Amino acid sequence: MATQWRWLWLLAGVLLSGFGHAQNWPEKPVRVVIPWGPGGGTDIAGRQLSARMAEMYGQQFPVDNRGGANGMIGAGLVAKAPGDGYTLLLHTLSSHVLNTSYYSQRPYDPDRDFSPVTLIGKVPLVMYVHPSFPARKPADVVRLARAKADEVQYASFATGSPSHFAGALLALKTGTKMLHVPYKGGGVAMAALLGGEAYLHFGGIAVGLPHVRAGKIQAIAVSTAERTPQLPELPTIAEALNLKDYDVSVTFGILVPSSTPKPLQAQMYQKIAAALASPEYKSRLKKTGTDEVPVTTPEALAQWLQRETARWAGIVKATGIRSN
């Protein structure tokens, strides 16, 4: 009996020690894995959050860009990381929603291997066109696609990405065809548009807006269901073409390995939520081309992921687009 009580006391000590550790998070640098290359909208917004967290909590939050396989390389890395609170994933619509339907196999299970923390932002995709492309509104794009079928080329920042499906969904809903040309990241896709390799691109605000202001490309619509406060003059694709249920954005948030203890997850949520709610971060967020979203509880993020996964499963099936 004495031995049994001794083990119970030891277990209680371990549990209390773990809770105390959670209270002190972060005690060392926290790696933030972004499953895309540098320079895109997700990377820009993620770096702003990392900088704000470092200012508030006195530890570094270095960004680790692990692009490739539509977000699966970075997500797979975090799935296998220790659940000690020192590796975060900036999840995207691709890594935890689109890939579930687009790929038959993944190096991680989105539900089993991760625990949700909170959403942090939403990047509307802008329909950009090259000046040589004879389209100045979405109706022109649809008219040209109907007339020239696969000759209308659009660049995306990856096969199976929101940028890819923004074009595929538009073609599906308008009964047209467009030629999809994938690139390795938003910055590379934008360079292709600037160079005239592609006529059309669905890309982020932060990446494209400087080129719009310089007169190198034109922005003609946004992909979200509602107009973005950052470009209120641009119509949505849905309103411009009178389309139902056309809504595409690069929404992202924070996930941690599912092995992370619940008390530690709770502390991480509280501190990340405080950074998101700070006026300093909100001010920076506007400069990244990211729309603010309400601070989301872990439970609400889990529900959002379930809803979006079901919605996009239907869209992927309807387009007939799947990985090889």
Q: Your description of this structure?
A:
With 324 residues, this protein is of the alpha/beta class. It has two domains: 28-122 and 249-319, 3-Layer(aba) Sandwich (D-Maltodextrin-Binding Protein, domain 2), CATH 3.40.190; 126-241, D-Maltodextrin-Binding Protein, domain 2. Helices cover 47% and strands 17% of the residues. It has twelve helices and ten strands. The chain has helices at 2-23, 41-57, 72-79, 93-102, 138-148, 162-174, 186-194, 205-213, 237-241, 262-277, 279-287, 298-319, and strands spanning 31-34, 63-65, 87-92, 114-124, 126-129, 153-156, 179-182, 200-203, 218-222, 249-257. The chain is globular, with a radius of gyration of 21 Å. The model is unreliable at 1-21 (pLDDT under 50).
Task: Give the structural class.
Answer: alpha/beta
Unreliable stretches: 1-21
Mean pLDDT: 89
Q: Output the CATH homologous superfamily of the largest domain.
A: Bordetella uptake gene, domain 1
Domains, number: 2
Strand arrangement, largest sheet? 2-1-3-10-4
CATH architecture of the largest domain: 3-Layer(aba) Sandwich
Helix tally equals 12
- Determine the strand fraction and express it as a percent band: 15-25%
Fraction of helical residues: 40-55%
**SSE succession:** HEHEHEHEEHEHEHEHEHEHHH
Largest sheet: 5 strands, mixed
**What name does CATH use for the topology of the largest domain?**
D-Maltodextrin-Binding Protein, domain 2
DSSP, total strands:
10
